[in-house]
Every structure is written in structure tokens, then in C-alpha cells.
Amino acid sequence: MTDRPLSGYRIIIxxxxxxxxxxxxxxxxxxxxxxxxxxxxxxxxxELLVEGRIDAALIDINLGSSLSFDFARELxxxxxxxxxxxxxxxxxxxxxxxxxxxLSKPADxxxxxxxxxxxxxxxx
Length: 124
Hints:
This protein is an alpha/beta fold. The protein has helices spanning 18-30, 45-50, 69-77, 109-123, and strands at residues 10-14, 34-39, 56-59, 82-86, 102-104. It has one domain: Response regulator (Rossmann fold, 3-Layer(aba) Sandwich), CATH 3.40.50.2300. The radius of gyration is 13 Å and the shape is globular. The mean pLDDT is 91.
């Protein structure tokens, strides 16, 4: 593994906890990623795609007043790989999202980087 395994990859972070979002952003940027959006609510993918490709997304399940499942489905429909980063058990995922990578909080930064490198590497 190189020092910057996410170099060249453009990644979205969907996380409603400011500190978790910042930690994730710093982790991904130190691994070489370009974090193109950090948001607490589902962004408009169409607008983000106008600005360039999206190689992967790291998304929290619980966004306070809503869940991220619809956003995850939209990513899947656009063939954009993603991993969940959540305090919930993977067993709570709906059937159509079961089997997607699901990292438990608090996740070791190396595990987050490795998961996104695998996902983005297959997409790039």
C-alpha cells in the first residue's frame, strides 16, 4: 500500500456529526483523496457530477432527522460505490442495501481508507 492510497480519487462524505465529518475529511485527504463534498444532508448528485466524477462516498446511516438509504440507492443507481460508516449494526440495512460495505463507528482510519481504496479502485 502506498502512503497515499486514495490519491486521485474524488470522494463525498455524508455525515451529520461535525467532528466525525471533519475526522473523516482529514483522514481521506491525508490518504490523498480530494473530498469534493462534506454535508450533513443528501447533496444533489446531479450538481456534483457536473463538477466532475465521483469515485466513492462514505455515508452515515442516521442523519438526525432522516436516514441516508434513498441517497445510497441513488449512488447505486449511478454506479457510484459507497460504504456506510455508522453506529448501527449492518443488520438494520434494508434488503436492497444489505451486503454493502458497512464500517462500525468508531472505525480505525486505516479500515476506512482501505475500504474506500477498494471501492474507488474498482470504479476509477
